[in-house]
Amino acid sequence: MIGIKCFNSHCQGESHKATGKPCQDFSFSIKTEGYAIAMVSDGHGGERYFRSDVGSKIAVEVAHRCLVEFAEGISPSLFADLPSTPVGIGDTYHPELQRLVEAIVVGWRNAVLEHATANPLTETEQLISNPKDDHEWEKTYGCTLIATLLTPQFWLAFQIGDGKCVVIDKEGVPCEPIPWDDKCFLNKTTSICDTDAAREFRYCIGGKESFPIAVFMGSDGIDDSFGEEENLYNFYIQLAKGFAKDGYEATIADLIATLPVLSKRGSQDDMSVAGWYEDNALSHISQKMSEWQLSRLKAKQESLSTKIASVWHQIIFKGTTKETKRSMFDELMRYGNEKNVINKRILLIKNKSENGN
Amino acid sequence: MSLLDETVEIPRRTMTLFFMIDTSGSMAGSKIGAVNDAVVNVLPMLEEISAENPDAEIKVAALEFSTTCHWLYNEPKPANEFVWQDVQASALTSLGAACKELSGKLSRSGFMKSASGSFAPAIILLSDGAPTDDFESGLAVLKNNNWFKAAIKVAVAIGEDADKEVLAQFTGTNEAVFTVHNIEALKQVIRIVAVTSSQIGSKSSTAGDTTKQEQVIAEVKSAVDNIGGAEVASAPSSTVSYDDWD
Fold first, then answer.
1. Which domains does chain B have, with CATH numbers?
2. Which listed residue, A24, A196, A277, B9, has the most CB atoms within 10 A of its CB?
3. What's the rounded Cα separation, in Å, for the pair B2 and A300?
4. Range A4-284 classified under CATH 3.60.40.10
5. Which residue has the higher pLDDT, B87 or A96?
6. What ipTM was assigned to the predicted interfaces of this complex?
């Protein structure tokens, strides 16, 4: 895959450090002449999932093997002309994709069974697990999985569970290509250890014309740190601009240094990020990515101006008590501070953009 | 170039505390006066919890319901910006309509942000009577709402006439229904429930696999044991309880 670069990094979360839990996230990426693959897997943190750190590694190993077989075994032209096609829960899977996810689920179950057989539950582990559940040994290894595959003919991204996959298109606009699953909500997620796991994958697949410039994926520790999607997109744009301006090695070093800091300042959870990007094209869309950021910030600025005008209108024209007035001035101060932060951000993005980033 | 410079925002998460307040006619007088007083006094405490919590900002929303429903503000507010305007009691108890109204706001098009940026909300229902509308259909709508499913839900039954069965259906367990029999107990329980729900609801970590609702129930239960005129609704009725609202 000439001109494609892929990357991955994961680290133990701040809360895991504090409680002595291992890092339950795992990430992986590889590039050959025929394909690029990147993925992240997030082992569940609940008490009963005490082997999820092993489960996430197994998920990545099995998915890697299955994706290589998929890339090498499929007719090169099958998806070549396909527009970007998102497939969500309840939609009909393409038969080849159905076979792929079934192979991953079965492969994962066989591998964790093998691990469980070689490493029987200790007495302490038996106390935590539920002996009435026939699938309990699987559950202890439970994890999510997000993966992407790029070949010269098509690209694919698929996912079971939470975490987010974000792509940046040729216009420098970020979006989430894989349909969301409403079962993944707050700390609840679907999992590769679910009985019906093969029906819980969602994906997006597309031919050559629909290739994104960059694909990023992160475990929920990443998106929980950023809250609103726009903040997450800004982080990935920052990463993309880093690759474009500072190069691969420097940006990977920055990413490795950043993830523990992000965990501390953000969700406290384990962190994993992986993806691939088209090296030359990325620098060409840097300006467009900045324009997208600026357009969103200007929209926020306008919305805040409207809110400020509305509060002033109430203060001036509507009878308010002394207490209400005080709270309205608090509100005005909050909006003012938010506006200042946005103004600073706009200036910074403009300056960086003028300096080629 | 730092990946976390000022172009990237890492906001605090948000936890919204909802008050659902029965303002039907039977609440008139000392009951509604005590509710007004208790909420006014608890707001600065919530402001303090929010300010001291690096994980989450606490916001407050309040819905009063009688014959109709009415939000005190059209968005959740930080506690310091939430000026409580005393609610007045009159007319009927449309709890079913209030459930539907709450469900509408428990969404991204309503009061909630992205799930990634939020903790599950805490919902405190205060009522002294029984619904006069179609409560079941309202609750059925609410029970399908993902935010409601994940929420910490606690109810305060004000006096013996409160329909504790209905309140237990709302919270999902009768252990989350606390009964109060006098003004002082009402004030204290509102304060304890609001403060405990906010403290536990806005924390990143949970104690093992215990739900946050279970943690809130356990803490409020132990506090209620020391308040005269307050009890867990499911407590055995061997102790005679008197309502005293004068």
1. 13-79+89-232 (3.40.50.410)
2. A24
3. 24
4. yes
5. A96
6. 0.85
